[in-house]
Structure prediction request, 687 residues.
Amino acid sequence: MPTSWNRLPQVRHARLIDWRDRDAALPVSATPVLAWGNGRSRGDVCLNDGGTLLLTGGMDRLIAFDRVSGVLECETGLTLGDALRFCMPQGWMLPVVPGTQFVTVGGAIANDVHGRNHHHAGNFGRHVLSIELARSTGERVRVGPDREPELFAATVGGLGLTGLMTHVRLQLVPVSNAFLLTENVAFRHLDEFWELDARLGSHWPYTVARIDGLARGSRLGRGVFLAGRHAPPQPAGVRLPLWRDASRSVPLDLPSWMLNRYSVRALNSMYRWVAGRRGRRLQHYQTALFPLDRVQDWNRLYGRSGFFSYQCVLPHASARDGIRTLLRRTAASGQGSFLATLKTFGELPSPGMLSFPRPGVTLALDFLNHGSRTQRLLSDLDDVVAGAGGALYPAKDARMSVTMFRRGFPQWERFAGFVDPAFSSTFWRRINP
Amino acid sequence: MSTAPRRIAIFGATSRIATEAARLWLARGVNLVLIARNAERLRMLDDDLVLRGGGLAEVNVVTADLGEPEALPALWTSLIERFPDLDAVLIAHGTLPNQRRCEADPEVMLEAMRVNALSAMALLTAIANDFEARGSGTIGVIGSVAGDRGRRNRYVYGAAKGMLALFLQGLRTRLHEKGVRVITIKPALVTTPMTQDFDRQGPLWSRPERVARGIVRAFGGRGNVVYLPWFWRPVTWAIHLIPEGIFKRLALAR
Prediction:
């Protein structure tokens, strides 16, 4: 039963089709079609209520890999984790990874995801060499930065609406080993974050900060700054730390009262205390880049009623004031999320018409679903984001308003011209009433 | 007896579960011989496995129609001649027949029996003789919990899988003293293309990767009848205990 990661909204689909053949013709469907990869987006971009979902998890084959140039050709249902397990031992790495390796290649392109190295490498779509697209007209189009660039720009970040992406070619980057050199620095408030970010951002390709969303007053925005870079080749005789997959899963849905301001406050303090003490060290990419993946099914911690993710980007000019206000309102509401994420985007342009990353600062929060109380808080936050000239991330949205979307994505009308008429999603219908 | 195979033949290799199992075996250095009907799909899987294996193990593919029981002993002979070191077999092919059409048309019903039971049994007869003569080998066959009890909406498929389970039971006893292992694998509700028209909701459904892990584990273990996931063993056992007079009235029996 396909859902989104935050379990909101809960919808029913008319038909589910396991889609495994990249060459097969699209199904004849009376209802709108959408591809569903692994359901890791947090909202309704991957849902299609009353429509048809093509489940692409079984369309996950590798097609070709050039060990010299680092070009990987694969089907779009492949998860980034599987791709990494394949290329990492051969000295190649995906140029951009989000906070989880459980997303599919198709999902990463459709949402044009970004990672901790955005200020260094830009977003995922920048490294896509070509995409094979099956359109409902029956035609197959290969699009890329240099071929059908308009349709390519619509497809990257195009939320799966321009047709079914069947297989793609990606440019990987060389690495010496599977490890990152990381450094954690605790900071006491937002001003210290800005200072650290300016100082460390320029020479660490991976940076992100985890913020205690409940801290107030003089501690507002306290947290831990995480910096990393790929480890250099290790001299002979140096043994890299052993790594084994020690992931645990959450066996059942926790009752929602267990995540309250006291337990979250305790968890945040504990995280800051533990993570803030770690200095420089070598970490396997799995632990360095995907810490949350080690807790499988962590969405169950939020219980059956699900949660709202909220990720915005504010332009540099208004970022400092805007982030402060957002954190203040969140903390004051007492609905503060476990570990907010703060990150400065770089200047590298996004290829997609609807790509979310842009120069500025991004803040990501998660809120347990308390119904209208949470909705009110999020509307409050919307006012701040809109006032600051910012935008919300469709991949993590289940509720943004039409105006909010149109303001944040001024190319939406141009994009709409490229949408395949047979494709749609719950998100797309919500945003185009 | 409980070591990983050196070279395994997988019949119906392009199915979702068999594909995942093939990837797991490959990562353990097991050489693969993949047999399936659709040449194009087989070629795609071949490319995928050769890349993933990175030379760690050999991958060979053979295109053959597994729905023709009469042709399968000859197919096996050609396989064992080409790959004399084959020491394990996974039989994974099968279809989910349309029950209503099976009820309406005996031809359709017979075809369902051929694809889901007779073809595997023809193949097993040939394999068993070779492994028996050699005195070693492991044979795994994917059955189904549907074969444990006949139900209103699935009894043709269930009868085929049930026939297969009985056949394997006898074969296991025959080959046991010759050092050949026979594993009956019984998955239940798995999210594969075969079940896409079901209402796949709830905690009883499992992903093909999980079932594949169970299969690979079973080949390295000592079990005879393996339910995947494990909790289906007590569930089917409990269902088995319900007297027929009551069972036929239950929604469960549908």
